[in-house]
Amino acid sequence: MNNNKKMVEHLQQYGVISSEKVARVMETIDRALFVPDRTPAYADCPQEIGYNATISAPHMHATCLQLLEEKLQPGMHALDVGSGTGYLTACFAMLVGPQGRAIGVEHIPELVASSINNIEKSAAAPLLKKGSLSMHVGDGREGWPECAPYDAIHVGAAAPEMPQALLDQLKPGGRMVIPVGNIFQDLKVVDKNPDGSISIRSESSVRYVPLTSRDAQLQS
Ligand SMILES: C[S@@+](CC[C@H](N)C(=O)[O-])C[C@H]1O[C@@H](n2cnc3c(N)ncnc32)[C@H](O)[C@@H]1O
């Protein structure tokens, strides 16, 4: 697997990507710009990025983009909690466009700094410059209230239980995709109905690093 387009084609052939829109955005944002040097960028597995964190595997990025696709229309607001390398936040920004907002929140300041460097080399750079895409240091369990409510929330680390602040920041009609659990985790799809009630289903079993405090992560 030696280029980004081939990685996307491979995910299409294996039925992971069925959406043209998701295929196009993953082609546009080159994964190689987001992984550390000498890392096999296009292999379908997570890769170490330091600080006991990983960039998620391409098939997980594709799955989450597809689950959220309807809530990533131009002009919509998207929050990426545990934004790590910034890859998925950049994809969100491309989909919601310059009239939308894509916010990344990550609690390791060094990862936020490198995610900004990564994005500056990518097709999402103009959106970062104009401010529709922004990356922040913070505890993602608290969300990012300044730009709430969100049509789409993605959580890139496993929460021991559903964070109330994130449920509160979801717009009626909005959707959150979040891994929940400790050792055994389920990828949950959380829909906030127009009347404010919540519907939750499990998409699949997954394995993510924990959504935790910075100290706990650095000591793990
Ligand atoms: C699987 S990794 C990165 C995922 C990201 N989607 C990517 O592919 O680059 C999960 C990230 O969540 C971050 N994280 C864990 N707990 C957090 C918290 N409480 N607040 C913000 N970020 C957190 C970790 O530092 C890590 O970068």
From TrEMBL:
Enzyme class: transferase
Cross-referenced Pfam families: PCMT (PF01135)
EC number in record: 2.1.1.77
Keyword Secreted: no
Keywords: Methyltransferase, S-adenosyl-L-methionine, Transferase
Family membership noted in the UniProt record: Belongs to the methyltransferase superfamily. L-isoaspartyl/D-aspartyl protein methyltransferase family.
Name of the protein described by the UniProt record: Protein-L-isoaspartate O-methyltransferase
